[in-house]
Design goal:
The complex is a heterodimer. By secondary structure, chain A is an all-alpha fold. Chain A has 4 helices and no strands. Classes of the chains: A mainly alpha, B mainly alpha.
């Protein structure tokens, strides 16, 4: 899948999280960044993954069902008075 | 890893130990739903997962006096629910823990292979259908976009759903997730990557 030592887009997209987590070796990081320089598609993909992460951070943490919350509170009160 | 509880954890712990209901409610509201998602990784149904969460909180209350702050309070909470769920899952004789991770961790591509040029082309593996820039950025901030993300997360396999929720919704570090779920860095990253790729896909559809 490689053109000489260049990464193909199909490989780059699989490395995005490792890149963002700073888990690539220095050589791979360099190849990844070199690829981005000339590839708008992969730049967009990386940018969109960043946007996705930021947007996901605005999703509410969610709630437990009310009945379960109530049971947990009961358990807490029981524990407190024991 | 920290050896003393962070100031925030210390306040919550003090409140819990003193029987302060508000401290308990705060903790339950912040982490309860995330703990339920973790339980779903290991057991077969939502109903059993809810029982696991209940059992885990009883364990939390029982253990709170002995908690030393070797890990953060939230890591401790999530470890307890993960361990409770694993035990329960084994009793259900459901061979989940690593088989589900195994499925997820395969070499399957996260982007539709049809979007890339095939091996007969001059630049195989390069974009045939590259992602287009998401023009009106404001749309990403809409309630609709958040709904798209929530639905996409709900559709994920349980391990991916738990990991993206912990990392990207609740803001755990990768180290915290690995500690809480006993995952290797690599497994954690693979699950996170697959989850994020699917959420991005859903957003791409929406932003079109």
């Amino acid at each position: 899948m490689r053109l000489d030592r260049e990464l193909a887009c199909q490989e780059v997209v699989e490395l995005v999280t490792a890149y963002l987590e700073d888990a690539l070796s220095p050589e791979d990081r360099e190849r990844f960044e070199e690829h981005l320089v000339f590839c708008d598609g992969c730049q967009n993909y990386l940018e969109q993954m960043r946007d996705t992460i930021a947007a996901t951070g605005r999703v509410p943490v969610g709630a437990l069902p009310a009945a379960l919350e109530e049971q947990l509170l009961e358990a807490f009160r029981g524990w407190r008075s024991s | 890893m920290e050896q003393v509880p962070s100031p925030q954890d210390a306040r919550l712990l003090e409140g819990l130990r003193a029987g302060d209901e508000a401290a308990f409610v705060a903790l339950m509201r912040e982490y309860g739903a995330g703990m339920l998602r973790v339980a779903m990784m290991y057991v077969s149904s939502r109903a059993v997962a809810e029982e696991v969460v209940q059992e885990a909180w009883l364990g939390v209350l029982k253990g709170i006096g002995r908690f030393e702050g070797r890990s953060s309070l939230k890591t401790w909470l999530f470890r307890i629910v993960a361990n409770t769920a694993k035990t329960r899952g084994m009793r259900e004789s459901r061979s989940i823990p690593f088989s589900s991770l195994g499925d997820d961790a395969g070499a399957e591509p996260t982007v539709d292979p049809d979007r890339f040029l095939g091996s007969g082309e001059r630049f195989p593996g390069h974009w045939a259908l590259p992602p287009q820039a998401w023009a009106p950025e404001g749309r990403l901030l809409s309630q609709e976009a958040l709904d798209v993300i929530e639905r996409a997360i709900d559709r994920l396999p349980p391990a991916q759903r738990a990991v993206i929720s912990m990392r990207d919704v609740q803001g755990f570090t990768s180290e915290e997730v690995c500690n809480a779920l006993d995952l290797t860095e690599t497994n954690q990253r693979v699950l996170l990557h697959r989850a994020r790729a699917k959420v991005r896909d859903a957003l791409e559809e929406y932003m079109r």
